[in-house]
Amino acid sequence: MFIVVGSGPAGVACAMALVEAGLPVTMVDGGESLEASISSVVTRMSMQSHADWLEADRQLIQGKVETSARGVQLKKLFGSDFPYRSVDQILPNESVGIGHLTASLAIGGFSNVWGAAALQYGAKELKGWPLDVDDLEPAYKAVSRFMPISSDSDELDSLYPRSGCAERSLRRSRQAEAIFRLFERDRERFRRAGILFGGPRLAVRPHVFEGLAGAESVGCSYCGQCLFGCPYGCIYSAVHTLERLKKFGNFHHLAGVVIDGFDECGGTVTICGRRVADGERVSLSGKKLFLAAGVVSTTRILLNSIPVYNRTAVMKTSEYFMLPLLTVRNYWGGNSDLLHTLSQMFLECVDDEVSSHNIHMQLYTYSDMFKIALDQMGFGARLLTSLFRRQLLGRLLVIQGYLHSDDSSTISMSLGEGGVLRLVGNQSLRGGQVVRRLMATLLRVLPFSGVIPLVPMLKVGLPGEGRHAGGAFPMSATPGPLEVDVSCRPAGLRHVHVVDASVFPTVPAATITLTAMANAYRVGKSVATE
Fold first, then answer.
1. What is the pLDDT of residue 333?
2. CA 455 to chain centre
3. Is the separation of the CB atoms in 63 and 80 below 8 Å?
4. Gap between the Cα atoms of 163 and 195, Å rounded
5. Contacts of 456 (CB under 8 A, 6+ apart)
6. Other CB atoms closer than 10 Å to residue 239's CB: what's the count?
7. What is the per-residue pLDDT across 293-335, written as a single tens digit (0 to 9) for each?
8. Cα separation, 37 vs 421, whole angstroms
9. DSSP 96-117
10. Is 424 helix (H, G, I), strand (E, B) or coil?
């Protein structure tokens, strides 16, 4: 038996490689899922045109959005916090100076609440890795078979390959279409400033609508609910692949179990854990173990299992920042607009005077999330007339950006008494310098295209905010303590493989999920052909 711990993106990708090769696989996860009361509403909505949704149902799935001056505090799915539920009780930790970086006990992990942005790493992103583009390309193509990615061919192809990406993209919002035309008009000015831009690469899939004429596969319905959760299931989740895995006779899903550690003896690996429901001890033995529990849980398991006493693992992060912008022109379409609310455009800064690494930015236009955030911050009822509110929402944009880990903060991770994981943020002065240089570039370029960066409202995240993190046990051609080899085995172990972002030698600014999946598939495929 081959054991995979974790049902997030890396876990299902690794399991798919093993199962396709005919190997017996047991996947273990914490088992948290969406409440039945909400799930029944989502199911009803998924069988209707969004024009026929009840307003009460729409409000239910939007739930209560918790915001502050730093933005949305906790992204939920259909108003539920199940991706974060029970973690503090089951897997206690102490956090000092970090953002909301935690473990997840949910089936599918944080893919339940991600933004679906999926970039394939090019040669620049893999600099310093013991892998190159050719090592990962077959795995990228394999992953695209069960995680479709919509995209356009554009100038971003020079930075990020598109192995397996579909030649289709989602329709841009009214705001995004107008801005894209302005950016295209000024493309040469952008290039001279080291800014490239193009359409987003998003892990979305068609949904099956049970209409009067029977089942019909259709694309995105542009219902505008993306940031709250798609009732049609268009946004990829690892749960989709898990459901495919369950159709294989050689796959078994053991939900509701948390793993504390493992022991490798001879040709066998034994994992030890607890049932979430009652704390009853559980053990399971297999030929190989693949750890894909997410960077926090995987690090906890490794520190609790291998002989690295009193050692501290250092996790790399991709510094996160959020920048509001205003357009000179009002593009208000309001709730009548049919649109998706995932990222509408990617921008990349490739100027060595700003950073020697690419800086990745994702542009977002209107979402009901903006309106809710304004209301909660007191702008809705007290300060804004209806007309002024429309003027603001028709102009408001948001950029979410990420830096390379070389320019970013780190997080020290160690185990304390009672297995409590301690996470301590180590702020990087370099990150702040890079962000300031980037802001100067954006102020120099964007106003010519009718977009004003609101730099005084810039928010730079604490270490780990944005959840682009990994590398606590980095890959190395010659691994030492707290490192893994190219097969992602910790030093001294033969039958344990770490297959999530914990093994990234660096954390590039580009999104991490697709590469974590590709590497996990690569490792699973390699083991299956041994």
1. 64
2. 25
3. yes
4. 23
5. none
6. 19
7. 999 999 999 999 987 667 899 999 999 999 999 999 988 765 5
8. 34
9. ES--S-----BTTGGGGS---B
10. strand
Q: Among candidates 409, 124, 25, 1, which has minimal Cα distance to 13?
A: 25
Two tokens at 229? 């959760």
Element (H or E) spanning 140, and its range? helix 133-143
pLDDT at 165: 75
Q: What is the pLDDT of residues 359-413, one digit of tens each?
A: 999 999 988 777 776 666 554 444 555 666 677 788 899 999 999 999 999 999 9
User: Whose CA is closest to 209, among 18, 23, 45?
Assistant: 45
Sheet harboring 496-498: ordered strands across? 251-255, 25-29, 2-5, 288-291, 496-498
Note the residue count of the chain: 530
Q: Tell me the CB-side half-sphere exposure of residue 14, using CA atoms within 13 A.
A: 33
Each as own residue / partner, the long-range contacts of residues 205-210 (CB below 8 Å, 24 or more positions apart, any chain) are 205/148, 205/233, 205/234, 205/236, 205/240, 206/234, 207/46, 207/232, 207/233, 207/234, 209/47, 209/49, 210/47
Report the distance separating Cα 255 and Cα 80, nearest Å. Answer: 19
The label of the residue with tokens 């009840």 reads 54
CA distance 318 to 121: 15
Rounded Cα gap, residues 411 and 395, in angstroms = 37
H/E segment holding residue 491: none
Q: Which of 160, 68, 167 is nearest to 117 (CA)?
A: 160
Is it the case that residue 109 has pLDDT exceeding 70?
yes
